[in-house]
Amino acid sequence: MNESAAAVADRQAIERVIQQYISGGISGRGDDMKSAFHQDATIFGYLGPEFIGGPIQGLFDWVDQNPPAAGLQGAIASIDIGETVALARLELDNWGGHRFTDMFTLLKVDGEWKIICKVFHLHA
């Protein structure tokens, strides 16, 4: 089955949003990824035994406080779109020597895709 032009455009827009997030990790600047997220977005996951949860500003602060991840590699494993909502899975390798799986919930807000929630897993 062929995707409609609108579905292809949505998929490409989501890929750009995720790439913006990856680029912020590479640069080590939270501001470089900020526009990928809705202003009220949240983040949840574990860094080792420490639970991380709350407003997305915590991610931006963490990125700013850590060295740039110049060798970061990101691969989008899946994108599932349901009209104005989407789920995306991202596999990240070499973020400060670590591997992560990120799951994003996205919402089309005023015609633009924004990450609403990031949930992550730090691989051992």
Word description of this protein:
The protein has 124 residues and is α+β, with helices and mostly antiparallel strands. The chain has a single domain, classed as Nuclear Transport Factor 2, Chain: A (Roll). The chain contains three helices and six strands. It has helices at residues 5-27, 30-34, 57-65, and strands spanning 37-47, 50-55, 73-82, 85-95, 98-109, 112-122. It has a six-stranded mixed β-sheet, covered by helices on one side. Strand 5 and strand 6 (112-122) form a beta hairpin. The protein is globular. The termini are far apart. The mean pLDDT is 96.
Classify the secondary structure makeup into a structural class: alpha+beta
Q: What's the pLDDT, averaged over the residues?
A: 96
> Helical segment tally?
3
Helix content estimate: 25-40%
* CATH architecture assignment name: Roll
Topology pattern, helix = H, strand = E: HHEEHEEEE
How many distinct domains?
1
Q: Strand-residue fraction?
A: over 45%
Strand order of the largest sheet: 2-1-6-5-4-3
Ends apart, CA distance between termini: 39 Å
Topology of helices and strands:
Blueprint: H1 5-27, H2 30-34, E1 37-47, E2 50-55, H3 57-65, E3 73-82, E4 85-95, E5 98-109, E6 112-122
Parallel strand pairs: 1-6
Antiparallel strand pairs: 1-2, 3-4, 4-5, 5-6
How would you concisely characterize the structure shown here?
The protein has helices at about 5-25, 30-35, 55-65; strands at about 35-45, 50-55, 75-80, 85-95, 100-110, 110-120. It is an alpha+beta fold and about 120 residues long. The chain has one domain (about 5-120): Nuclear Transport Factor 2, Chain: A, CATH 3.10.450.50.
